């Protein structure tokens, strides 16, 4: 029997495009990095290297060459050469995004664009590469299978029980599909810089193999030869080829991910199976605080995604199917700009302030491109629609619905019309409307066709049925009692602004809803942390100013003004909240529509204080052990009280490889997309909180309260003193913008319902809440299109099948429609098209056709979608019966909602004070002095001269590690001081001479310190492994003075 083991060394880099420096600086490093890499590939004809699973790094490199006036085509040719030789592995992604904080389509486009960019140079790598993203979504497996990727490499979030831990496991998606998952048990750097100290390479390899062999599931062990932003590829191949590291029972080879997957699969091991999402910080942190860090970015990103996915792209696709142009280049540019904000250090909000300022600019640019495309298409649409129905019309409106569901609702337009008017639809039906004191005109619109439009006309003269005609089921108000009521709900507003909501369908009464809670946050950008002594402040039983904004019959609205007196920050020792207090003002608009069970909220907050977390609470008092939340392509069930970790079961082998920051307790803070829901089976009642771009929730077990995080203000990328995390998460650099001292707007809703999330149509309600109707005002003109039309409709039981995409296929031949069934039961869906469908097929997520679909009567598809299945349809359409005219109509795109703007009298605490700058400069100076003193101390003074050689080497290694630890800390602190002073000058001397001089002087210094910091980080991590190696040479296995750490 062959017992020979194989140690696979994979040479790679993990490239954080922006983190403690912006891409302005790190992109400059790409030129020497690629030169060194090309040099290595030339020198060693068998050398192979993994380029972090991404392709944006190549685009950035070529762009940097162009900026520096260097030969771009020569480098492009070299890239093609090595990619085609399978020696440089690129892709399959465009970039290393965070899978939990972006949309479903962003995940798919990251792979579509990544593979497209890779194919400009050769074939993309055929393996998933989830090196450092902060937790894994449940549908990761199905998405990778949809791109024919045979396996994934993964690190964070793995939730194996201690006795189950192996180097590989099977990962099963909620649809039942499985992938082989390679677990980075000992991180992605356990064999970094082997050749740098070649004399100990053999010993280090033996040491790492010894760690992993007890947990290996096959005769293969994975050693990762790389780290973050390493500028010099490790010259490891000649040493491997020379037999260094080989022993009597294992051999060492340089490998690549596909080969390692194949080697494991060949042995057909018996492996544990994990199912669904991986979100445990037991062995390595998943950093749940990133869900709410810099919430303003999450909201902006959500808005940008929707503008692109839900508006611009679908209308482009429809007009293309009618013979119009499909502006692929513009859409791709918008997608790339959007995706460039999605790397884990970017969208997670865990970088320096300059990085996130760049993100705001990129998001704004992407959204502007999408908006311009959409508005241009609306002009074309309006030009083709016949709006000549009423010659006397005061206004011609076209209401556009870009969702896959037929829907109605209430729209609002500016009220600039005479006292007596009526409003009619394209069929001549009089529509109900409501006037709010000359400010807005609210119109009850009929069901607008899915992916279609309806024409409305504002006409002079009184309505036939009184003031606009009452809707069939109006909303009524009791002004004195502050009660709003419709056929589904009764909403009573209390003196403190909290609500009592009665669900008429189930008889359930919900008390104390809409209570705001403010608590301290002694954490950092990665993790929320309570201090030793917290003080929670709520809006309960505090008087609120309450005013009516609208009183039916279509919509009723109330404005609630709340002021919390909260501490200005943390105490100097960060163990409690400060004694100084400041007013924190909140204004919430509550809206209830006539025919809706959804209570909508829009809360504007002027954040005036630091180091705190603001949440809004919805006590449900429903009996359930679980909550369910929408995630990407799924609805996930999670326990409200998870079982605690029992680390007494951790074997010595497992304890030895746990090297990084960890969350010591199971997290109860979770990600969501558009809703979280609790369902009480006995009562047959459920309650959901819907949101727009607010990805963090927690269920508080007392009263099963849904806590929705609105903002979290902190002042550091990472700190070492959190109570909710152990270990090193990242650089200790001040980030005053992460305090979010700005005015922010939050949109969310409460939706009580019968049954569970599916039978209660929660997904449909959340989708509608996140997908507004578009209102276009145009002139009166003839057109070849009718006044009402719908192009594509998808129907399913309870609206539980959700659509995420309508686009042109990448090959330019067909429409792509993407649907998914997040339910646990198979569902049938019917797709109906206005245009004739020539050919229909199921396709993979990569848009490769898989199986034909029968087309009924030329326009209808009947689909059976399995539980949790993602379905991509490829539809070739017949020539359109409608022509897209070249002319464009004059249009005015009206806002979907006419909301009041709020001006606040309160001002925030200073973002940066002179004293804070001085303290940070003093911290940097103190660390620099300590580093210099330690560096000057001879290594012999740290050791034991009378000890044996191994002990002396260990002592020397520990001294070197301490030196590098202080070097890194001092460089981080100096960068922090520079950034903090720059922020202070920008705030207090904006644009004046001192501000400009500081910026000009600091840029080369930031460049210099940043490069030194990068080298120090690599050196420190290498020394951690060297010390660990020395430690295990001693007979007693003496512990080191430094533990192996890991930052993001």
From TrEMBL:
One of its GO terms (biological process) is mannose metabolic process. One of its GO terms (molecular function) is alpha-mannosidase activity. The keyword Metal-binding applies. Residues 286-363 form the Glycoside hydrolase family 38 central domain. InterPro entries: Gal_mutarotase_sf_dom (IPR011013), GH38_C (IPR041147), Glyco_hydro/deAcase_b/a-brl (IPR011330), Glyco_hydro_38_C (IPR011682), Glyco_hydro_38_cen (IPR015341), Glyco_hydro_38_cen_sf (IPR037094), Glyco_hydro_38_N (IPR000602), Glyco_hydro_38_N_sf (IPR027291). It holds the Pfam family Glyco_hydro_38C. The keyword Lipoprotein does not apply. Keywords: Glycosidase, Hydrolase, Metal-binding. Belongs to the glycosyl hydrolase 38 family. This is Mannosylglycerate hydrolase. It comes from Hydrogenispora ethanolica. The lineage of its organism: Bacteria, Bacillati, Bacillota, Hydrogenispora.
